[in-house]
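Re: Re: C-alpha cell formats

Sure, here are both.
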Amino acid sequence: MIDDLRGLYGVADSGVRPELPLIEKVRALLQGGARVVQLRQKREGAREALAVARLAVPLCHARGARCVVNDRLDVALLAHADGVHLGDSDLPVDRARALAPGLLIGATVRDLAGAQAAGRAGASYVGLGPIFGTRTKRVNVPPRGLEMLAEVVRGAALPVVAIGGIDLARIGDVARAGAAMAAVVSAPFDGGDPAEATRALALAFSRGAAA
C-alpha cells in the first residue's frame, strides 16, 4: 500500500488563501500532479470537514491520487478517504491502527527516534518537519534541515515525507536528500495559477529525485 508514495504531497489547508474554497485547492493540486492530497481543516467543525472530504475523495481517486485527512480519523473513515495524518497531539498511532487496520496512517515526527517509534506503532509513513522555517504552522522546534532529513531517510523503515518551508527553490534539495515525498502547503498558492505552480513543484521534485 505504501510502495507508490513518491512525488508531490499537496496540503489543501483552509487557512492558506482562505478566500479560495478548499475543494478548488484540491482540484488545483490534482491538476498539477500531486500524488497525495491532504485535507487540513483546523477551523472547521466535523460536519463541514466531512462534507468537503466526501467531495475530495472521488476527485483524488479519479486522478489516481490518494486523499488523506489531517487529524480526524472519524472524518477519514466516514468519507472513505485513503488515510489520516496524525500530529503530535492527535490520537496515538497504535490506537488509530487498531481502529483502522487498512488505512494509510501518517505520523508527524521530529527526528529518527520518533520515526522509528512511529513505525513500531503501525504508521504507514512519517512526516518529518519542519525541514525549513515556515510561517504556515507554529511549531515549537527548530528547523530540522536537510542533514537530519537524510539521516531519517537512511534510518527509518518507512517512507519519509518532508514538510515545512518547502518551495520551488528548495524542493529539489529535499528530493536529493532522499525524501519519498515533499509536502507543500503555501507554495502552490503564493501567487499566479495554483495548478501551474503545483506542476512546477512536482517537476522540480522529480528532477531532484533523479539526480
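Second one below.
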Amino acid sequence: MSGETAAVSIDPSLMGPEESDPEGRAYRGVAMEGSIARWYARTRGTPSQIAAWRQQAKELVADLPAGTDLLEVAPGPGYFAVELARTGRARVTALEISRTFVQIANAHAREAGVPVAVRQGDASRMPFGAASFDRIVCQAAFKNFGRPQAAINEMHRVLRPGGVAIVEDMRRDAPDAGIHAEVRGMGLGPVRAYFTRRALFSLRRRAYTSEEFVRLAERSPFGSCAVRVEGIGLEVRFAKRPDP
C-alpha cells in the first residue's frame, strides 16, 4: 500500500526506454491494432461489462462539478469513455495510441450519441497543454506503457492544480483463483473465456505491484500516491498539489 516504501526496487524489465529500451517503444507486448484490437473490442463489449462501466462512471464523477474536463488515457474501444460522457457531468477527452481503437471508440461514441473527443497519441508525450484537465483516469492499460515514468510525469503536467489522476490496473501478485473468478463474471462463452484467461495470465507478468507504483510516484512530480488493492487489481491515486 501507499505507506510501504522501504527498500523497494522496480524490476528493470518493467521500466521504460529511459532506463532500458533504446528503441523507445510505446507498447510493452503486442500492439493492439487491426484484428487483435477488434477481437478485444468484441470481448470487452458484453452487456454485463457495459453495465459495470456505467456504474463505475457514475461513481467516478459523483464528486465532480458539472463541466469538469476529464481525460481518459488509453480508452481502448472507448466503452468507459462513452459511459463517462453519458453521465453529463464531464467534458470527456480520450487519448489512445492504437489507430484501430481510435476508429472504434469514435464510432462507438457516435452510435451512443454522446460527445467524446478521441485523440490519437502516446501517453508519454501527450498532445495537450499544461493544466488542461481536472481529472485523469486510466483503466487496465498502464502495464502496457513502454515509458511508465514518462506517462506519470505527463499526467502531472496536463492536470490542473488540485486535480487527481486515477490508475486502475491488474496487479502482479493477483492470485490465479481471482483471475478465474474475474473471467467468470464477464459473462463470456467458453471459447472467449478460455482465451481471456490466457491473456490475463500473460498480462499479469508485466503488471505492477503496490510497491512499484509507490516508487514510480516518488520519482514523479506527484511525489506520492495512494494505493488500494481490490480483487485482482489496484487503484492508484496521484494528486497534484493545489496552488498555494
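Residues 149 and 219 are 8 Å apart (CA to CA). The first helix runs from residue 34 to 44.
- S.
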